[in-house]
Amino acid sequence: LAVANSEPGAGGELRNTRTTAARGGDGSYRLTGRKSFATFGRDADYFLCAARRLDGTAPAGREAIDGFFVSREAAGVDVDESWD
DSSP class of residue 6? Predict the structure, then answer.
């Protein structure tokens, strides 16, 4: 398991998360976004990703940021193993 919360341009602040999670008809969530760092990410089978939930269940006037487990094998997941 690797934690993947950092995003390009977010300054390390979770409140600046731009990754979104939209709930599908089957109840699962689809995450859209990019993470910039995950400790031990090259060895992880799953990532715990922060995402802004778009299902309208947050308190009025607020958006919820939740954690979602994402399989390395999930469609659309691309792990770039380069390090700079």
Answer: B
Give 24-61 as a DSSP string. Answer: -TTS-EEEE----B-TTGGG-SEEEEEEEE-SS-SPTT
Phi, psi of 15 (to 5 degrees): -65, -15
Q: How far apart are CA 16 and CA 12, in angstroms?
A: 8
CA 22/CA 59 separation, integer angstroms: 17
Q: Is pTM beyond 0.90 here?
A: no
Please give the helix or strand (H or E) that residue 20 lies within, else none: strand 20-23
Tens of pLDDT, residues 6-60: 888 888 788 888 999 998 899 889 999 988 877 778 888 999 999 988 876 666 6
Whether 41 and 4 have beta carbons less than 8 Å apart is answered as yes
